[in-house]
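Record type: monomer structure entry
Structure origin: computed from sequence
Chain ID: A
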Amino acid sequence: IMLVGLWAAPSALAEEKPRRGGILRVALAGDPPSLDMHQEQTFLVIIPFSTVYNTLVAFDPHGYPNIIGDLAQSWTISDDQTVWTFRLHQGVKFHDGSDLTAADIKASWDKMISPPEGVVSPRKSLYQMIQSVETPDPYTVVFRLRYASPSFLSMLAHPANFIYAKKYLDQDPNYYKKNAMGSGPFKLKAYVHGASLEMERNPTYWKPGLPYMDGIKYYIIKDDGARAKSIRADRTDVEFRGFAPAEVEGIKGQM
């Protein structure tokens, strides 16, 4: 067994002295078709809602393409590279105050790799190597693969792989098409169709000191020229988890 990863706050953040407070203003080219990134393939969902959720692992925003833990504190790989065991951070809370455990990881991934009737999974083909997801205890998740896959960890780190709460998926597998309830640094405050999406700071976010911003407001402006002229960024010290540097610059270019 090899120990291959530990989550830690990037050293660059430790050296910086970011200002706190303020609202980040961002322009979006249109409304999201739904709020469930598991079922969508557009940046109109992933840009605003990546701030609402966590993923199991993520691309390091300060060292792309390195992969770091997000909800995963550490992980190990079997010698034949077909069993990946992830240890989770404890004390992670969803926005409703409930604990995030291995059961939520499994429910989210089961939905993506084996969607129930009435649910689509456009990236299902990316995860054909996964045979099963197991939860031997509340803070351990085991992925058993059908075969060794060099791309497996990168596929896990895809920024669309939001972790949802099992209890809501059990109630309705399409719950997240109209609702947003994650464990991320921001919470959905308001959505006015055709006008704006507004996020507010999660005051009990489990990563100490984050987020820096009080909120983010996404203005839905479909006209390219109007979008470029009408939005400016008052602040840019927000955690863009999971995006490549070029994608982050693209997001900032819309502010």
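Annotation 1: The radius of gyration is 18 Å.
Annotation 2: Confidence is low (pLDDT under 50) at residues 1-9, 233-255.
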